[in-house]
């Protein structure tokens, strides 16, 4: 019973929480516009097609919502500004929980954490449009499922 | 046998000492409760402006109980040469500080939220991952805010009774705020629920609503604190009428056969009053020290708040004293 209630509350296809700008509706079955910053191994933008762990992660998400990905390679500021202005739906490039761009884009929960040899832990995130909470919730649910280690 | 708990030189009746002890316990409980709520809200608040406002409000709610506990500790000390009126003003100072904090923080909350509203900032509210489920964080915010509704109302009702008995305005202000706290909790929950429906501006609107309630508390407390600290006539705990003891003191003095007229200047020191009673003796009445002492003792016995009484015989009453009906 409790689990059923929780599952219901976690259900995002119901449209609650909703997107004020209808981002999830817009990209589902259509085009997901993603801005990427070259930052191997997360994003490698040097080849003819982008690759890297975050690129694969986003392609999986696009599959989930039945969308084609349109990649835009740019600098971090350009990507974040474009997300803020609604020109891009998603940003990736080895961003971390310490990103200074959290006033321009909605930063996801970290989908993975990596410990450096000196013991400092870095948590990696993606950037989504501000306040598009159905999109953000769907994305984070996907990230939780495809996370290599449980958070 | 418990140690006597007094307000400076004013000896409290035993049942009132019980009331003070109960108030101290309640204030400690309030502090504990607020520490829990502040942590709970912090754990779920995320990027919601309304939740942040509720969090700030609960942080501020810590000030009045702390002010009360500090004041009770300070005013125990009897008057000294250096502080001939006793330490009672500690209550007023605590009250003023609480009021200023409420006013400043409430204004900041409103300003921040209004700027967010004008700039069209959409609050991102993501998810928590719990027990293998990914749940919208907004649900946790709503549940926490709804859980926080009942306790403050009960605490407020308990405190308001004690505040009346002790004539303690800090406690009264504290109780008054707690009694109204459910509105801001409910407002915050509604704000977050609105965001869930895609109405992004609900969050900032709820934060402004919370900010307004904080400012309103600040303004009313500031006015009461300043009024008392600037030696206005003593008023009832609600602050809306002259204190009936003023009239009672004057009537008592007028009732004596050797008194033609009497008028009192009574100010609220915080809990206790400082009374200056002017009396005009009847023509030909011989005024003895014994009579004056009797009059003073009679007034002190009327109420525990009337320990500090000065009686001054005069030819005519000063214009500024309350001269009856």
Automatic annotation (TrEMBL), chain A:
Domain of life per record: Bacteria
UniProt cross-references to SUPFAM superfamilies, sorted A to Z: Periplasmic binding protein-like II
Protein name per UniProt: Extracellular solute-binding protein (Family 3)
Source organism of the structure: Nesterenkonia sandarakina
Lineage, uppermost ranks: Bacteria, Bacillati, Actinomycetota, Actinomycetes, Micrococcales
UniProtKB/TrEMBL annotation, chain B:
Molecular function GO labels: monoatomic cation transmembrane transporter activity
Principal location class: membrane
Keyword terms, alphabetized: Membrane, Transmembrane, Transmembrane helix, Transport
A Pfam family that the UniProt record links to this protein: Cation_efflux
Subcellular location, record wording: Membrane
TM annotation in the entry: 26-47, 59-75, 96-118, 138-156, 186-212
Domain Cation efflux protein transmembrane: 34-229
Membrane topology: Multi-pass membrane protein
GO CC annotations on file: membrane
Stated name of the protein: Divalent metal cation (Fe/Co/Zn/Cd) transporter
């Amino acid at each position: 019973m409790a689990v059923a209630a929780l599952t219901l509350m976690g259900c995002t296809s119901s449209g609650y929480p909703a997107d004020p700008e209808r981002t999830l509706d817009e990209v589902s079955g259509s085009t997901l516009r993603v801005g990427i910053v070259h930052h191997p191994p997360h994003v490698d933008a040097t080849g003819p097609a982008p690759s890297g762990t975050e690129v694969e992660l986003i392609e999986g998400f696009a599959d989930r919502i039945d969308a084609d990905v349109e990649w835009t390679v740019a600098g971090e500021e350009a990507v974040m500004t474009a997300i803020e202005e609604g020109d891009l739906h998603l940003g990736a490039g080895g961003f971390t929980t310490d990103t200074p761009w959290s006033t321009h884009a909605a930063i996801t929960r970290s989908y993975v954490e990596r410990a450096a040899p000196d013991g400092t832990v870095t948590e990696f995130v993606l950037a989504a449009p501000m306040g598009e909470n159905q999109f953000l919730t769907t994305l984070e649910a996907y990230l939780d499922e495809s996370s290599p280690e449980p958070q | 046998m418990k140690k006597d708990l007094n307000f400076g030189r004013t000896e409290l009746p035993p049942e009132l000492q019980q009331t003070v002890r109960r108030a101290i316990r309640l204030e400690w409980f309030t502090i504990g409760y607020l520490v829990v709520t502040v942590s709970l809200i912090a754990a779920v608040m995320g990027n919601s402006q309304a939740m942040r406002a509720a969090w700030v409000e609960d942080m501020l709610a810590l000030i009045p109980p702390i002010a009360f506990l500090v004041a009770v500790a300070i005013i125990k000390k009897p008057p000294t040469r250096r502080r001939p009126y006793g330490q009672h003003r500690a209550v007023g100072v605590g009250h003023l500080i609480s009021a200023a904090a409420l006013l400043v923080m409430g204004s900041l909350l409103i300003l921040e939220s209004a700027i967010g509203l004008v700039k069209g900032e959409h609050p991102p509210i993501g998810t928590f991952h719990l027990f293998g489920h990914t749940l919208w964080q907004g649900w946790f915010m709503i549940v926490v805010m709804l859980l926080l509704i009942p306790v403050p109302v009960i605490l407020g009702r308990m405190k308001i009774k004690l505040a009346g008995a002790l004539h303690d305005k800090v406690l009264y202000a504290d109780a008054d705020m707690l009694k109204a706290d459910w509105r801001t909790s409910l407002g915050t929950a509604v704000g977050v629920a609105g965001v869930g429906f895609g109405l992004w501006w609900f969050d900032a609107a709820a934060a402004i609503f919370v900010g307004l309630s904080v400012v309103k508390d600040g303004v009313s407390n500031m006015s009461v604190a300043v009024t008392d600290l600037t030696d206005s006539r003593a008023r009832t705990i609600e602050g809306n009428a002259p204190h009936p003891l003023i009239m009672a003191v004057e009537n008592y003095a007028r009732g004596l056969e050797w008194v033609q007229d009497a008028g009192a200047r009574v100010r609220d020191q915080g809990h206790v009053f400082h009374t200056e009673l002017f009396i005009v003796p009847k023509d030909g009445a011989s005024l003895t020290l014994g009579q004056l002492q009797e009059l003073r003792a009679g007034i002190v016995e009327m109420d525990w708040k009337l320990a500090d009484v000065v009686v001054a015989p005069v030819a005519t009453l000063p214009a500024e004293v309350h001269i009856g009906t």
